[in-house]
Design a protein that fits this description.
233 residues, alpha/beta, Amidase signature (AS) enzymes, two-stranded antiparallel sheet, 7 strands, 43% helix, globular
């Protein structure tokens, strides 16, 4: 932790604000999220870093959602089956959320080959993504694609049981891939919109470079101390 006080050397940092849609088209993030990235890019530049637009081609594949959903659904099925064994009875649909039950049923329909294929796809994509960090030290994106939504936004209605997770996929496409690649990433509250809501930005480092990520985050916090919002009680 003492090393956090030492600023990183001048870094080469890429940034992106667009994400892939299910139809394969690119869509930009909400203007507040784009502004947050632009603000952070300017701040990083003022600290001596080189910042430029840079895409990661492997993240342009709309298959990410389908592959994630396959793995996630099988995982939910496994966890519910484990909980059922602990309880000594089946878990009833009314005991869990609509989305959780829908994912568990979807997981039961997945074949073993589909599950293994999804992991293979993720591993291949991860290796391709890792190549980006042979050119850049960090990648800068919005944390999410829009300002904080109201509570309940991600609940699935009974007539659209997977609606919540599909909505979440639109909301957080920049963070999920790095759960798969295992790369260190962090969200920094460096921007507020006109309504006073914090708009986060994400920094991603190469695999195993938590040191560089944390030192850069500490440098940004020193240059622009984070605002601590009061918690409503």
């Amino acid at each position: 932790l003492a090393d956090l006080a030492t600023p990183p050397r001048p870094l080469r940092i890429g940034f992106e604000t667009r994400r892939i849609m299910p139809d394969g088209q690119l869509a930009d993030s909400h203007p507040d999220c784009v502004a947050a990235v632009a603000h952070t890019a300017q701040l990083l530049t003022s600290l001596g870093h080189h910042v430029e637009h840079a895409e990661i081609a492997a993240l342009r594949d709309p298959d990410w959602v389908a592959r994630f959903l396959t793995i996630w659904a099988v995982g939910v099925t496994t966890e519910l089956d484990h909980a059922s064994r602990l309880l000594g009875r089946s878990i009833e649909p009314h005991e869990i959320e609509v989305l959780t039950y829908a994912l568990s049923e979807l997981g039961r329909m997945m074949s073993a080959s589909a599950y293994v294929d999804a992991w293979g796809w993720i591993h291949r994509a991860s290796r391709t993504i890792a190549e980006f960090w042979s050119t850049y030290d960090l990648w800068l994106t919005p944390t999410v694609t829009e300002p904080p939504p109201p509570l309940g936004t991600f609940q699935s209605p009974a007539d659209d049981p997977l609606g919540g997770i599909m909505r979440a996929a639109e909301f957080a496409p920049f963070t999920a891939p790095f759960n798969a690649t295992g790369q260190p990433a962090c969200s920094l509250p460096l921007y507020n919109n006109a309504a006073g809501l914090p708009i986060g930005v994400q920094l991603v480092a190469a695999y195993g470079r938590e040191d560089l990520l944390l030192r850069t985050a500490a440098q940004l916090e020193a240059a622009q101390p984070f605002v601590h919002h009061a918690v409503r009680r």
